Structure to design on (65 residues):
């Protein structure tokens, strides 16, 4: 999954949480939504790291020529 998909899932759970009147259920849904947001941020960091690796590899290849 990509970061945007994780964010959409998080938003669904935040929406469910807003609809809950029972505090424990609301808190549980917010926890799940927060987890999805953390996954989105982690995915973005991994993508950014991969882009840096690829850019460095390209620069190294150009220097060798």
């Amino acid at each position: 999954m990509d970061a945007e998909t994780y964010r959409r899932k998080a938003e669904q759970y935040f929406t469910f949480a807003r609809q809950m009147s029972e505090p424990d259920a609301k808190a549980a849904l917010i926890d799940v939504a927060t987890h999805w947001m953390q996954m989105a941020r982690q995915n973005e960091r991994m993508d950014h790291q991969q882009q840096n690796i690829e850019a460095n590899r390209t620069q190294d290849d150009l220097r060798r020529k």
In short: The chain has two helices and no strands.
